[in-house]
Amino acid sequence: MTHPGASHTQALGSGQKTVPEEVRDVAGVGLGDIVASVVDGVLIGGLYGLVAVGLALIWGVMEVINFAHGDYMMLGALATYFLATRLGLDPLLAAPVAFGLVFLLGVATQRTVINRILDAPLLTQIATTFAVLLIIRYGVQAAFGPYTRRLSSWYANEIYYLGPVVIPLPKLIAFIASVAVAAALYFFLFHTRTGIALRATAQDREVAQLMGINVHRMYELAFGIGVGVAGLAGAVASLFYPVFPEMGAFFALIAFISVVLGGFGSVFGAFLGGIIVGVTEAVSALFIDPALKDVVAFLLFIVIVL
């Protein structure tokens, strides 16, 4: 992930410090470099985790692999961009609106498409959700063009320094938002009647029906929340990441890796998996070509699967 060039900085500590040579290894990587990379990995990993949370929720409740998940994230980012540039909303205020719009689209998709493939073979589910991916992606290209867009705001170029650690404010905001949403989802799932009904549906659909739970309503809610959270992730990602029709492809792959790391169906394991992927990418970039850091995440995925 690259951050736009910064024009304004603010010191939180005593400024950058020179790392003593005795703490440097033979590769020339200092302890400060490692700490800075871990912090950056945690920040971006929170965003990865937020995308993965929605994917894990959908799988956990419905046992459907949503290949279009990243494109719902892109829709959230695009909605935030237009709300900010056309209506003048601050991107942070536009983010909840983007969540609502993507949530409603998700509910509509579940009713008209996903509901028909709930008991279908896995290959049918994959083909169907991939078709949804193509409709969303190329529909956006046809309607708005294949252009790359960037949001601007007063905090877009804010950077804080804490010793050797560089903290771009947009990434910090995205991380805080990701943690807050994950915490809110935890409260919803474990401390509300609707959330408990969702978990009951995930554990045993037939028993949930016998208990009077409308499982089809739960499916709509799960899919809507799942893609809505992805849309919200896209909204906060647009603070520092370019918005374009294919932006969701990379995040979808990272989300799948995070879900595998955290365990299929484990919402909070998926969030932790996202942070692990983020830290792994950031630290590995110190020792290999940064352009290859994403390969490390995929190698980690292969190791876990095998």
Brief characterization of the structure:
The chain is mainly alpha-helical. 67% of the residues lie in helices and 4% in strands.
Please identify the top-level CATH class.
Answer: Mainly Alpha
Distance between the termini: 28 Å
> What does the average pLDDT come to?
87
Main sheet? 3 strands, mixed
Residues in helices, as a percent range: 55-70%
What is the H-and-E element order? Answer: EHHHHEEHHHHHHH
Q: What would you say the CATH architecture is?
A: Orthogonal Bundle
Poorly predicted runs: 1-26
Quickly count the domains: 1
Tally the beta strands: 3
Q: What portion of the residues fall into strands of 2 or more residues? A: under 5%
Verbal overview:
- The protein is built from 11 helices and 3 strands; from the N terminus they run βααααββααααααα.
- With 306 residues, the chain is mainly α.
- The protein has one domain: ABC transporter involved in vitamin B12 uptake, BtuC (Orthogonal Bundle), CATH 1.10.3470.
- It has a 3-stranded mixed β-sheet with strand order 1-2-3.
- Helix 1 runs parallel beside helix 5 and helix 1 packs antiparallel against helix 10.
- It is globular, with a radius of gyration of 20 Å.
- The N terminus is likely disordered.
Keywords for this structure?
mainly alpha, disordered N terminus, 4% strand, ABC transporter involved in vitamin B12 uptake, BtuC, 3-stranded mixed sheet, 306 residues
